[in-house]
Design a protein that fits this description.
Chains A, B: This is CYTH domain-containing protein. 2 copies of one chain form a homodimer. The first copy, chain A, is mainly beta. The first copy, chain A, has helices spanning about 70-80, 145-150, 155-165; strands at about 1-10, 25-30, 35-45, 45-50, 60-65, 85-95, 95-105, 110-120, 130-135. The first copy, chain A, is globular.
């Protein structure tokens, strides 16, 4: 078991794309409760099953297991809640921490979210200048929420805020 | 991935207890949807995470992974839907097949269910004389249902049918 502190931000330009190559992710949820999520993820050549517990501020319990690729594909195609999520992830080291930038596709096309994992909730860190507004506490940006309420269904004003920030 | 055919029956006496020693099980659900279940189970000294797909008649998709005992305990104690399920399981070979008899405790005390796993839906098999009515198609006997609607909450007439059959 590991506790992770994740902070999420909007992204104001695609400058991040020149800093890393993207890895294609396909993921889906067997459960997208607010209290607990069970996620199937294919990340490049690897596949995982990940269980996350209740969000308390930015702290969550997390359990992750490697699973065979063919079983991950079968769960994504047959068992997971529709739609599943497709995105490219760009992993960018910056001033001693790692940023993960997710560029979504499909029903979430247009949405880009940056995430940084930190050792504690009050750790200070430097932001690249293409990092915009923090959205850590906003549940509509959780990957699990993007299944039930994808970006394409958001009101136009909300979409613009994300893209133009 | 394996397809399993399971048939469930009520039990008319405790004669099964003289045929095997019971193993203590503690299990809980991270998801108890009708379309898909995610189960954490401690069975004696082993711990598993099991994902089962949609029930079509008696056929379900199933994916199972070994997990560390301490992570299973943490998920059962902190993440699983309340109540978790406790039972003793008796495994009894009989006429070429394996019967599993579950004697429930806690909120399901009084309930005993026998299950046989078969290679196909029309496979013939011999029943021990302590096997009673078939309940394969009745969703209230699913382990996942016993979390939301435990035996102690069933109407007295339904409880009597199970115990007196």
């Amino acid at each position: 078991m590991a506790k992770e502190i994740e902070r999420k931000f909007l992204v104001s330009s695609d400058a991040y794309k020149s800093l890393a190559s993207g890895t294609y992710f396909h993921q889906g949820y067997l459960n997208a409760d607010k209290d607990r999520t069970v996620r199937v993820r294919i990340a490049g050549d690897d596949a995982f099953l990940t269980i996350k517990g209740i969000t308390e501020g930015a702290t969550r319990s997390e359990f992750e297991y490697d699973i065979p690729m063919d079983e991950a594909e079968e769960m994504l195609n047959e068992l997971c809640i529709r739609p599943t999520i497709e995105k490219h992830r760009y992993v960018i080291p910056w001033a001693g921490f790692i940023w993960e930038i997710d560029e979504f596709h499909g029903e979430n096309q247009g949405l880009v979210i940056a995430e940084i994992e930190l050792p504690s909730e009050d750790t200070e860190f430097e932001k690249p200048d293409w990092i915009a507004e923090e959205v850590t506490e906003d549940p509509k940006f959780y990957n699990a929420s993007l299944v039930n309420y994808p970006f394409k269904d958001w009101p136009e004003a909300e979409q613009k805020k994300v893209i133009q920030e």
